[in-house]
């Protein structure tokens, strides 16, 4: 399950791959209990294997294509298709909003200032694009690595590549806020909690909180230090009933 999004009072989930490529890149709606309803595939290109990202924006459900397996996404033993974004039209219908940049994965999506923003992988130069309702506008690439996260907080759009964190200044300009804070080398999740920006990272499994000038390390999740090589990855952060929760691999743990 590559993404979960609440939209229109329903829960939608997407898949990362399937044995048959035409069964891949699909979205499902939870129908209660163990039942689900097939909401269709993102296009018909068999080289789009994953729904890489999803978001509810301006009353519509959007999804971006990709290849979840990062080795195959790099072109090792597979020829991935270039990334597209689709909007849900109901039933099993998705409308293609066109190719976005020269990437093969739409890694992240954000709704900011009335527009839809997406971050792409390093294959296409790690760029951010904005959809203005008709065209995809290039918003720049901070430094060419995977553009993993986008999140607006208090009127500011924040972004994260694998190693670094940025603030969007408009047009194609990004201000670097930090580089590998506390020794982390990847950021896989952004969330807002108690009015501040939080980040879930790899490989130590640190949860960082942005204080406006620097990151505070609020703790380590996953395998304790010294028990194994550093492989804790925080893949998701979510706020529920006023508390912040984190999903962590490799041990498939949930922390609060």
Characteristics:
about 0% helix; four-stranded antiparallel β-sheet; Neuraminidase; mainly beta
Indicate the overall shape. globular
Distance between the termini: 21 Å
Task: Determine the number of helices (DSSP H or I, runs of at least 4 residues).
Answer: 1
Strands in their spatial order, largest beta sheet: 1-2-3-4
- Please write the string of helix (H) and strand (E) elements: EEEEEEHEEEEEEEEEEEEEEEEE
Helix and strand content put the structural class at mainly beta
Helix residue percentage: under 10%
Strand content: over 45%
CATH class: Mainly Beta
Radius of gyration: 18 Å
CATH topology: Neuraminidase
Q: Any overview of this molecule?
A:
With 256 residues, this protein is mainly beta. It has a single domain (3-255), classed as 6 Propeller (Neuraminidase). The protein contains one helix and 23 strands. The chain has a four-stranded antiparallel β-sheet, with no helix packed on it. It has a four-stranded antiparallel β-sheet with strand order 5-6-7-8, with no helix packed on it. The longest helix has 4 residues, at 70-73. The model has no long low-confidence stretch (mean pLDDT 97).
């Amino acid at each position: 399950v590559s993404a979960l999004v609440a939209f229109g009072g329903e829960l939608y989930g997407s898949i990362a791959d399937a044995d048959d490529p035409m069964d891949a890149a699909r979205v499902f709606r939870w129908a209660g209990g163990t039942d689900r309803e097939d909401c269709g595939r993102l296009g018909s290109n068999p080289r789009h294997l994953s729904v890489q990202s999803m978001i509810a924006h301006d009353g519509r459900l959007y999804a971006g294509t990709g290849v979840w397996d990062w080795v195959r996404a790099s072109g090792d033993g597979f020829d991935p298709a270039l990334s597209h974004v689709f909007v849900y039209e109901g039933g099993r219908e998705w409308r293609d909003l066109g190719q976005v940049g020269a990437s093969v994965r739409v890694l992240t999506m954000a709704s900011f200032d009335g527009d839809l923003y997406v971050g792409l992988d390093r294959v296409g130069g790690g760029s951010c694009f904005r959809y203005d309702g008709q065209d995809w506008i290039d918003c720049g690439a901070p430094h060419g690595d995977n553009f993993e996260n986008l999140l607006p907080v208090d009127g500011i759009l924040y972004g994260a590549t694998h190693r670094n964190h940025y603030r969007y200044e408009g047009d194609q300009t990004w201000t670097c806020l930090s580089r590998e804070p506390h020794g982390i080398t990847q950021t896989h999740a952004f969330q807002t909690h108690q009015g501040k920006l939080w980040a879930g990272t790899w490989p130590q499994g640190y949860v960082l909180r942005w204080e406006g000038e620097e990151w505070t390390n609020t703790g380590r999740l996953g395998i304790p230090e010294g028990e194994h090589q550093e492989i804790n990855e925080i893949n998701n952060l979510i706020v529920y009933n006023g508390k912040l929760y984190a999903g962590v691999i490799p041990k498939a743990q949930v922390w609060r």
